[in-house]
Predict the structure.
Amino acid sequence: MPVDPVRLDPGNHVDPGTGRCLMEHVSVLAGEPFRAWPRCTHPAVAALATQVNDRCSPVGRAALVRRAEALTRADSDDPALTWRLVAHAAASVLALRPGDPGALRRIVRARRAARAWRTAVPHRLARRLPRWAVVGCGLAALDELVAAVHALLAVTGPPGSPERDIALVALLDTVLDDVLDDRPDAPPTPALPVPRTPVREEQYA
């Protein structure tokens, strides 16, 4: 018998019978308890994926189902990961609105914060620390990540538009490419995205 396609909905749900968002679907695929914050996915990635899920149209969410399996492997031991995602969101804004001053300032903050965390928690140390300690390094930046996604929404099409769906799904794809490349045999400090517009940090100090 054919299997009914998975339908993703916005928001959180009590159980799969009442619906599921993208990250709740990921928890099912990973064999974890049904929830929007599965342990297999770094919380910063889960937070961004949740924003994408909730801001996409039904058509956009249908495309997100194909990203669920990759999200089951989207974890990282980089203490600067949240700031990397902030920079990716800001770079997405710059792709649509070159020279946007808010996005440029956000990338500068992300670069500085990433350097600070990698100095305080070198890669070798991060790989020896408990997962909760490494993950906790970026929790303070989650509000900045949400703000960066909202800034992207402001320069895309209106809610429900194909333009908005395309921008959000592309951002999630960029994040997944980054995080899934962050393997033990990969360089310990993945580069932050470089906008086409040169960023002079002293200009945004």
